[in-house]
Amino acid sequence: MMAGWLGFERRVALRFLREGRMQSLLIIVGVAAGVAVVAYISALISGLQTNTLDKTLGAQAHVTLSPLDEVVAVSPAAPGSTALQQIQPRAQRPRAIANWSALVPLLEALPGVAAVSPMVAGAGLAQRGEASKSIALVGVELERYDRIVHLRRKVVAGSARLGPGEGILGRELATDLGVRVGDRISLITSGNAGNVTDALRITALVDLGVRELNRRTVIVLLRAAQSLVGLPGGATNLDLALDDVWLAPQIAADLARRWPYKVESWQDTNAALVSALNAQSVSTSLIRAVVLVVVVLGIASVLVVSVVQKRREIGILRAMGCTRGQVQRIFLLQGAIVGALGSALGVLLAVALIWAFTTFVKGSDGPPLFQITLAPMLALRIAAIATVCGVLAAVAPARRAAALDPAQAIRI
Amino acid sequence: MDTHATPLLQMTDVRKRYNIGMPNEAEVLRGVSFSLQPGEFVALIGPSGSGKSTLLNVIGLLEPLTAGSYRLQGTEVAGLDDAALTLRRRSALGFVFQFHHLLPAFTALENVTLPALMRDGAVSPARRAQALAMLQAVGLEAAAAKRPGELSGGMQQRVAIARALVLQPPLVLADEPTGNLDRASSDEVFKLMRHMHAELNTAFLIVTHDPRLAARCDRVIALVDGLVERDQPQTPVPGHMAADNAPVTNPTSAS
User: Fold this and answer.
1) Closest by CA position to A298, among listed A32, A42, A85
2) How many CB atoms are closer than 10 A to CB A246?
3) DSSP for B200-236?
């Protein structure tokens, strides 16, 4: 038979919905509003989180390996005696990771690790004329480091290039020192043998996304940093970029088990941010769940009323030989149709809301605060969930309709 | 009519009790026995509360019987489950009710095609043509696209008759089919049923309060207090037969 699949149920369901036009319209708009809220909130929160993560992770590694902190060895008390000890923690001098160059290929071969970059980090002063600023000195191999923090994308002036005697500065630091690309500054650091001074020509200015970093960061060649910090041939830490940032804690724990290094994931260093993101995700899920429950209750209540209104029709259909299953499917289909139409409308509404957000809500400096888009897969998923909710909402009314006694229903 | 064939339906000592085991338990059918042959045209009469509607519901497989035997087309239906009863209802029976005869959301033609749609999931062109022919037979082809709300009571009842007959079931059950109509429409509808009976040889069992109509049936079963008090064939009132079996000529007449 042509168009046989649920042909009868489909026709009757559509007619019933069309007959109660106002009722159907109201509930479809209700579902649309619910779907729009869920889609919009999901897009907004995911945009916000992506943006926050990008900003946070844009300037730091996902996992960092560094030498274990130096601790004071405590001499054990003699048997049978009690020793009172006060321990002064040791000052942590710059130290290199033992055997780091052998470690890099091992780390690179690990599953889930996208890039590894050795780094020498130290402190110092940058001077130009009268101006003197304290800096965080970062010595890297530019190619490797770029894979961790995408430095090239963050260049706001000049071009990222690191040769001997060259350096890249954070944007605010350059402003503070009053320098531009091509200018020279002096660096003063304290190495093992006293203060070391070096001259640096600026090849590029970068915006690392965090003002405090922009105010302090000076990036130089690994080799240059090694001599400035007094760690010839050494690296103070190894930065790792991962394929999936959320696997950082597991991978960090795994590395710490394997090698005697201090391993920190970005979550360790950004605990507050992680808990904020988690709170946000939980709230979003809560809002979604509540909205879906409201949608389900809305559809269910309309269908319950519809079953009461349509008792006679159901009775007539049953008398004519309509099975209980067919009656059930008529109402389940109504739920699905309301859910699907509401979803379609809701997704359109969400797209409009997102457009309004990105068009009218701007940051102080012009462009939107952050980009939010409704991913097609997300929209589809929400629409599918809402449609399934429509069917679920119809289960109780459908069972009720199917259970109607036709003899009684006709008599009314 | 071959009276030796399997009876269309046969009821033996059929009982129907409501509220069993409760203080208000009532036995509405107290041992009804009768049979119906294919193609009969029978009136079921009786005072209010005599159990006519209950009997019709039991015959129509809308309510299970409490005790006794009911064979429809030779098959015992007592004890069949709801799904089996529903399918049997679909294939063997047509219904015409006093009120709420049609689905208001569907046009007259759609109402008549509903049984086929329900059975097959679609309405084939042949089924559609058949439904149109049936509407034509009840004199309402011009009203095919109209909703029940746009039709008079008599016209609605004629659509209901067309719907009951469209899949040519062996038996049509009519519960006070003219009870809600004025005299002219009532005559019109009754005439139509007689005519369709003559055309299709479908058996009709008509519950009626109207002695005038009962007098125009071939057999009258009188129910009193849940028992068959009288069951006898009769010669339809002279003068009505010819008119009753005449084709319906005035499709626009209505209540």
Assistant:
1) A32
2) 12
3) H--EEEEE-S-HHHHTTSSEEEEEETTEEEEEEE-PP
| Nearest residue to A96 via CA among A256, A233, A241 | A233
pLDDT of residue A364: 67
Percent of chain A with pLDDT over 70: 96
Mutate to test the interface with B, among A19, A317, A329, A410 (most CBs of B within 10 A): A410
Write the ipTM.
0.87
Best A316, A327, A328, A404 residue to mutate vs chain B (most B CBs within 10 Å):
A316
pLDDT digits (tens, 9 = 90+) for A249-292: 888 998 888 888 889 998 888 888 889 888 988 999 999 899 98
Please report which residue ranges of A259-270 form alpha helices under DSSP H.
Answer: 266-269
Contact B157, B178 (CB under 8 A): yes
Q: Could you tell me the pTM of the whole model?
A: 0.76
Chain B residues with CB inside 8 Å of A324's CB? 82-83, 86
Residue of B nearest to A327 (CA): B118
For B216, the token pair is: 């125009």
**Residue range B117-132, pLDDT digits in tens:** 999 989 999 999 999 9
Instruction: Give the one of A16, A322, A407 whose C-beta lies nearest to B57's C-beta.
Output: A407
Cβ distance B105 to A312 less than 8 Å, yes or no, reads no
- Number of alpha helices (DSSP H) and beta strands (DSSP E) in chain A: 14, 10
pLDDT tens, position by position, B139-177: 898 999 999 999 998 899 889 999 999 999 999 999 988
Torsion angles phi and psi, residue A101, rounded to 5: -70, -25
Chain A CA closest to residue B97: A410
Q: What is the pLDDT, as a whole number, of residue A4? A: 59
Per residue, what are the HEC states of A299-368? HHHHHHHHHHHCHHHHHHHHHCCCCHHHHHHHHHHHHHHHHHHHHHHHHHHHHHHHHHHHHHCECCCCCE
> CA separation (Å) from A374 to A40, A260, A297, A348, A383?
8, 45, 26, 10, 12
Q: For residue range A369-405, list pLDDT tens digits in order.
A: 677 888 899 899 999 999 999 999 999 999 999 999 8
CA distances from A307 to A48, A130, A301, A313, B50 (A): 44, 85, 10, 9, 32
Q: Which two tokens stand for residue A175?
A: 């402003």
What's the rounded Cα separation, in Å, for the pair A15 and B79?
35
